[in-house]
Design brief:
- The chain is an alpha+beta fold.
- It has one domain (2-127).
- Helices cover 63% and strands 12% of the residues.
- It has six helices and four strands, in the order E-E-H-E-E-H-H-H-H-H.
- It has helices at residues 16-25, 38-47, 51-61, 71-80, 84-97, 102-127, and strands at residues 2-5, 8-11, 27-30, 33-36.
- The protein has a two-stranded antiparallel ribbon. Strands 3-4 form a two-stranded antiparallel sheet.
- It is globular, with a radius of gyration of 16 Å.
- The termini are far apart.
Length: 128
């Protein structure tokens, strides 16, 4: 997948390196064990069309380029040129099929759906 920022094409890569970069900021530690939550955060941001989360996802996915865009470049692109909904949907499709992410993305989407169903059921019980 590619994006064009300031007239320059950038390759986006959602492999192991992207997961490691996402996990650097998004992780939980319990009983001395650390668990990366980068994919969970990415999926939530993409499903909600969150521009701040999208900015981080793009910045980390450009790791493969020799000359990477800056965070400010990406934010300006999102503010002025990007179709955020289309971009989020496209990236979600990419990480649903990328070898390094597809299994965890499937699990996160399933857990999100189950949580939503439980919340709706609880709300209906309170109303009923």
């Amino acid at each position: 997948m590619q994006i064009k920022i300031n007239g320059k094409d950038y390759e986006l890569n959602f492999g192991i390196r992207w997961v490691l970069l996402m996990n650097q900021k998004h992780n939980i530690t319990q009983n001395g064990l650390s668990q990366g939550m980068g994919i969970n955060q990415a999926v939530a941001s993409l499903k909600q069309y969150d521009p701040v989360g999208l900015s981080e996802i793009l910045l980390n996915a450009t790791w493969i380029n020799k000359d990477r865009p800056t965070s400010a470049d990406i934010d300006h692109y999102l503010d002025t040129d990007a179709d955020i909904k289309k971009l989020c949907d496209g990236i979600l499709k990419e990480i649903e099929t990328a070898n390094a992410t597809k299994t965890q993305v499937k699990n996160v989407l399933k857990a999100m759906k189950q949580a939503q169903e439980r919340a709706m059921s609880n709300n209906l019980e309170r109303l009923g």
